[in-house]
Amino acid sequence: MTSAVPPSPASAIMAEPAQTTRPIGGATRLYAVIGDPVAQVQAPSLLNPLFTRLAIDAVLVPVHARPTDFATVLHGLAAIENLDGVLVTIPHKVAACALAAERSPAARISGSANVLRPLPGGGWLADNFDGTGFVHGLTAAGHPVHGARVALMGAGGAGSAIAVALLDAGCGPLSIYDPDRAKCAGLLARLDEHWPGRAVATPEPALSDADLAVNATPLGLRPGDPLPLRPGSLPAGCVVADIIMKPPRTRLMEAASALGLPAHPGIHMLTHQLDLYRSFFQLSPADNA
Predict the structure, then answer these.
(1) Could you confirm whether 93 is annotated as catalytic?
(2) In order of start, what are the domains of the chain with their CATH numbers?
(3) pLDDT at 9 over 70
């Protein structure tokens, strides 16, 4: 169900020597990343160097939009003739999917979208690469998910996409915890259409026998946030993955490492989406365009 584009060492882009930023001019194409908050987003630091490397005259800028204004902001962006795409982050992924005219299987099943591309006749094409990027990042780090028992915290936009990708990659039993029971039930209903009985909702995080525990909630973005799960309840060797990217080492990561558990940070989920973005937005080197 998820995109079949193979992962690549996208993180190598981050390790390349700094390149001269292309000047912004009247012909520059625009991309936006929308969130609330938006100061934590890492996409501009990855996509803008990619534009430079490909000699594409484009820039990705952050847009801070409150949930009550998201539809209005998205409608306004659709009217910008030189805007070629939108990246979507918390808490707008479900709304972005609902407002799209067309949806990929990953977006439709998860009910969320983290990328939008204008359609020729108007409206947006939605896809979601969070799950695929997450699974590719885990695999590249030596943590394959096939057959793994997974405890997933969060059934929101990112959590839903991760659930789809984990099941598509053949994970073992998938338990999903979210205090919003209705949201969790809706996700399970969509998952059961494709993977009957493979995922269950739990009243508390199911940690005692997990091979992989995933925080797909916003908990960790702010210094005072509580831990999204209790690492001390996890068995030895359980991989603890956090999708929070700023700070790069969350309190959950630190707590897991202190117990000797493998800790997998959120940045890998993003870096392993670069090739997916490149394909979705049809980005080709300028000389070959």
Answers:
(1) yes
(2) 11-129+273-288 (3.40.50.10860), 131-269 (3.40.50.720)
(3) no
